[in-house]
Amino acid sequence: MQFPVFLMRLFRLVVLLVFLPLPVLADSFSAALSEQQRAVSEAIDSQKRVEQLDDESRNLLESYRQVTAELERLEQYNEHRQRFVASQDEELQRLAEQLLSIDNTRREIEPLMERMLDVLDRFVELDTPFLPGERAKRIAQLQDLEGQSDATLPERYRRLLEAYQVETEYGRTIESYRGKLELDGEPRLVTFLRLGRVALYYLTLDGKAAGIWNRAVSRWEPLALEHNRKIDRALQIAEKRLPPDLMPLPLIVPERMQ
Fold first, then answer.
1. Whole-angstrom Cα distance, residue 223 to residue 90?
2. Tell me, what DSSP letter sits at residue 205?
3. Are 179 and 242 in contact (CB under 8 A)?
4. Which of 73, 78, 138, 227 has its CA 20 to 30 A from that of 63?
């Protein structure tokens, strides 16, 4: 018959307590107590190390999450920059194509503008001689603008079109202005009356002499005294000193229309 293990250990302990001397028993107990304290101390140290490792693990995990989040943001930023760079490349390509088109347009437009300016200069020279100083000055400014390196093509083109527009408006308006005219070999101050481009008259300031420009022969023709009052009335209408009304003025009809 075998005894249980627990009873066997108990029996051995009783035997040791009975047969071992008291000093030996005290030493054994002290040693066992020290061993127990050492084991407890090691257990505490081990627990502290475990807790420290646990804290370090949590810190490392938090750092990993922050680095991962920052990496995702950097990847998103990098993708955005790549799209931006690609968009800029496309825009640069479009600008290069536009510049090429502008260069081609410039090569085509500049000769055209030169011809337009020459035509305008020639037209003013052959036209009825109203406002000669003003119109000549406008042509000279356009010619000077052509030679200025800082004058852009759009600006030069705009100014040229404005000059054409001004000349076009002359054909639809009436106007009076004062200027000098050589009469009987002497320069005299007169009042000019322009009726569009149909006719150009002058009347001396004393109202005693009047004339009309004859385009067929490019010279001034004197008018009979009876037309002076008509021209004076037309001048008052042009200056808005009288309301608009019919102006029965003399005209020079070209021979091919007679």
1. 72
2. T
3. no
4. 78
H-assigned helices in the chain: 5-19, 22-126, 132-146, 153-170, 228-238
What pLDDT was estimated at residue 174? 94
The partner residues of 141 in beta bridges, in order of sequence, read: none
Distances (CA, A) of 106 to 51, 96, 109, 161: 80, 15, 5, 16
Q: Closest by alpha carbon to 209, among 242, 173, 176, 182?
A: 182
Q: What integer pLDDT is reported at residue 255 of this predicted model?
A: 56
pLDDT tier at 257 (50, 70, 90 boundaries)?
A: very low
208 backbone dihedrals φ, ψ, rounded to 5°: -95, -15
In angstroms, the CA 61 to CA 63 distance is 5
pTM as predicted: 0.59
* Residue 151 CB neighbour total at 10 angstroms: 13
